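Students often ask why we bother predicting the structure of a whole assembly rather than each chain alone. The short answer is interfaces. A chain on its own may look different once its partners are present, and contacts between molecules only exist in the joint model. In this exercise we take two input lines together and write out one structure for the complete complex. Read the inputs first and try to guess which parts will touch.
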Amino acid sequence: MVDIEFHNVSKRYVRREMGASAPAPPLRDRLFQWRTRRDEFWALRDASFQVERGEALGIIGHNGAGKSTILKLLSRITAPTAGEITVRGRLSSLIEVSSGFHSEFTGRENVYMSGVIFGMSRREVIAKLPSILEFSGIGDFIDVPVKRYSSGMCLRLGFAIAAQLNPDILLLDEVLAVGDVPFQWRCLEHIQRMKQDGRTIVFISHDLAAVERLCDRAILLSRGRIVCEGKPQDVTLEYQRSTLLASEPPEHEKGVSRKIECTNFTYQGANRAAGEPVRPGEAMSLRVDYIAHETLRDAVFNVYLYWPSGYLCTQLTTADRAAVVDKGSGCVEFFCPVVNLRPGMFLVDVSVERCAEVVDWRHRCATLRVDEGPVVLGDIYMPHQHSILANRAESCAASRLY
Amino acid sequence: MTRPVQIIRPPSFSIREVARHLARLTEYRDLLCTLTLHRINLRYKQSVLGYFWAILHPVLLLLLYTILFSRFASVPTHGAPYAIFAFSALLPWTFFSNGLSGATVGLPAHSNLMSKVYFPREILPLSYVFAALLDLLIASLVLVVLMFYYGYRLTAGALWTIPAMVTLTVFLTGVALFASSLQVRFRDVGIAMPLLLQVWMFATPIVYSRSSVPESLRRWYDLNPLVAIMETFRGALLHGPIPGPLLLTESMAVSLLIAVASYAWFKHVEATMLDVI
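Now the answer. The structure tokens for the assembled complex follow.
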């Protein structure tokens, strides 16, 4: 059973307003503005996808890629320019209900008001008032005007109302980004419960880890088009790759002499084809092909691996052993007996350096993928052995666990 | 449990859909009711006189017009005391004018709410109309007192106020929906509204009677649907001349036409309202 179906949906926005700094057009143009050419912008272009009942779909993409447009279309806040959307079931979004609060009114009055606005009947709101009060933990403040609330109290009360809505389809838009840690936990718990109840979920987030945890499937949007669809892990990796490969090259890449040029980078796990994902704990070899335009005495080859966040994770280098690189082509091979990287996508920079001179620097020239291996928790995989020894309780007091 | 199925398509203008929209609107009656009460509660928050303003406002206007038009300039009133003559029309007019000016600015004032959740947007302007209607009910207490004071009795003719009020409400709804849908895009509407209402008030028999208008102009004068409504309302209460069922029927037909067309237009604009607000 399909709960949500997008069929070639497009959404066009028209920018009519001009910036304050732009020169005012002549009155004649302004009067006939709607006839003149307008500045158009497609927020969504020919999007087609389906969400099955009980499925959690994650939508990721850069700002302005069209994620929120999908939510707005689904919740009917705006209408599509072309195409057709079918929605089966009651739909509600777990958004900041509190942003619709009116500050002059008391918490109680706002609960009545918001509850009805978000689709409950008055009777339902009255029936659910005790559980809303309990969930929010507002206490006596319920009869105080909302303008006297702290922002956290507003948030809690808003969420307490949202949690009472009972939709078939739940829309989530960056909800986890607000509130303190216990509040976020409560949000997550609630969402997990909704998911276990078999509700359909559409989740929009920049928190890729949350998408991977919560969703069964994900789509990647770029400039209003769906560019990738599949398992959340694959889609988030694709997203990270597209983000990081597009990042600006650093200063030191400019002005390189290119006396030696790196031409290719490959990696290969033990018993795997080249370029296939490696696994933690396995052996791996990396290879950099080069062409030397002249002979260099003290060239150092480096391979840098970056976390998806752009932080340097580790470096492989030939700096410990000075090498003479003869003119002509060749390759450098690195061998790692044990891969102890965490599963995920790593970005690769390759460089050739010489004392203070950068000979060549290839920024983000490849990606290295590590699949799920024997150990998945934590930042790195630490190679280890173990043995269990019985009756050794009297061992050294200094190493007791606290 | 059956699930509602919704098919969302690009907006299109359709008169035939009006009945379906109205049916959907009834599902949201709780919201309309809550928003209407909210409207009234909000207006009098942090005010000392509170609901008393609903009475005070028309009474002060009444004093002003009574001094102006019975002391400084005299207006023929078919023998009725000027105060009650003016008030019997001022009352429905205040309803019309408050409802319209509120509804016009209502949508942009709630853009924050509209960007969060869907509900039939016409509920916002309608809530202003209904809030004004509640104000009218409160203020009509003053009319009752005035009638008692001047010794007017309620006769069977007073029943004419019912079709007059229905027509007025329908007309106001139509105009309010149209004006508010325009205001979303062109704020000029809201700016021009006070002036428009001023002109409209003097083009309607409120502080004077329809019989003061020269015969030759009356054909044009009667095009204003409010003329028949106000005259009927006043005539029914003050045992004066009622302009005849034909004129009221005409204005009822016009009002209905305007309301249906405005509603269809509003629903057409509604879907993408938030893109331009």
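Check your guess against this: The radius of gyration of chain B is 20 Å.
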